[in-house]
Write a structure and sequence with these properties.
Elements lengths: L6 E5 L4 H16 L3 E7 H10 L9 E5 L13 H9 L2 H12 L9 E5 L4 H9 L3 E5 L3 H8 L1 H6 L44 H13 L4 E4 L8 H4 L9 E3 L4 H6 L4 H4 L8 H7 L6 E5 L8 H14 L3 E4 L16 H4 L4 E4 L4 H5 L4 E6 L3 H9 L4 E3 L6 H10 L4 E3 L13 H12 L1 H22 L4 H18 L16
Parallel strand pairs: 1-2, 1-4, 2-3, 4-5, 5-6, 6-7, 8-9, 8-11, 9-10, 11-12, 12-13
Helix pairs in contact: 4-5, 13-18, 18-19
Bound molecules: uridine-5'-diphosphate.
The site of uridine-5'-diphosphate has 22 residues, from helix 1, helix 15 and helix 16.
Amino acid sequence: MGISGLHAVIVPFPAQRTINPLINLAQLLSSRGVVITFVNMDWSHKCMSKAAHNDDEPTFKFLNIPDGLPPDHGRLANLAESVIAMENLGPVLEHHLLSSSSDGKTPPVTCIITENFMSCTHQVAKKLGVPRVIFWTLCATSSIAQCNANLLLSHGHIPVKVEDSKRAEKVITCLPGNLPPLLPSDLFSFYRATDTSGVLFQWALRESQFQSKADYVLVNTFDELEPPETVSALSCNGCPALAVGPVFLPNFLEGRDLNGRGSLLEQDESCLKWLDAQDPASVIYVSFGSIAVKSNEQLEELAIGLEKSQHPFLWVLRMDIAGGMPATLPEGFEERTKDRGLIVKWAPQVKVLSHPSVGGFISHCGWNSCLESMSMGIPILGWPYSADQFLDCRFCKDVWKIGIDLEGVDVDENLVIKREEIERGVRRLMEGKEAQELRKRGMELKGAAFKAVGQGGSSFTNLNRFIHDMTQLSKSASVKRAYPQSIPSIC
Ligand code: UDP
């Protein structure tokens, strides 16, 4: 048993978006003496092992379990079937946890820390008689909206009509947490469905009922972005709700590349050498995360927009970026831009964003990408694709003021953005007064993120409090899941 006496089972949704922050959280807890079992699906573990560099082995063990889908299933390429498989994972997870703890060497489990979209863990935690901690891998504001989906439904904000975003009377003010007013287009894109019986629509609604039943809540954000009064709205039953992010940052600052260890694809480190040869803050980094797809028509407009902007670029073009089709770029594009452009299949993103040659990020605004960019002081040109990315993009622009966006992307994810608009966006991000202001704000947010995770900072202190609370809880033999009423002293 580690020095804290705690054994946390950590359960991500098997996607890059949640594996990265959870593996970083696992390492932070492990460094503080918590024994960790990190649960992977067989397939995600295989991908991680294949992609990993050996020099960043974490100090905890993995438990690999089958997800119940056939071996040749496309997994995240078929999100609807994947989410249902995860919803039904409970019995398999329970079985494997029980058999792995029967070896006499593994200490008893004292809590389950789960990503917010893994409701299957609710029942497992109940059976094991341990608290279920939800770790929100979204910003607190998106998390509050998601966990109050049924409230939004009763107020008629769900299903979302994005065209209402232009109508002042449709602004959303019914959510707790003293949030800035939300626009309909800020809500999870799964709720944009006109067919409310759709799998993702119904799944997200079902998940929200379990999200409000957590025994303890952590969220990957920090005070400067979202204050404690906002974060505490994530507690629906009086349990503590604490900001502990950005969780990748302390590991990064200590020289541990956990994003590299958790990567499902091999990161092409050769781009770092290429960056070394570029001027300071001159390169625009282009990446749309692990899932977003773009049509070949859109990729062509983007390529020409980048070319016309004249700025150096590093572009992550995933193998599956065109959704199963081979990606095609305009004829002669690579030859014409070879002196100032580099294309890779998957990059070591945090290392790229922290490289002094990078000056801007064209991003889909996945929450990890936003946090990583802010923590490195890099302004964002937002181009959301799905889920919470619409809110992240708008908040980067209007609330946190570290970003701008492309015209029309907030309400129409299928809109083909023209080359002229992309060129204009890149110039706004990289040149002139607006770019200077964004960089200044980037530096402020970077300072705030570093402060939050540093010794005595808000996220650092909150993580210690979490460990303290879990220790108290595990010591208290009489208390099972009746938290927090049973131990008011730590709430
Ligand atoms: N990432 C990476 N290499 C890339 C692109 C992304 O390592 O070329 C990582 C990135 O650092 C982030 C994660 O993949 O931690 C993507 O998460 P995010 O929430 O930004 O978006 P998603 O992939 O879920 O759409």
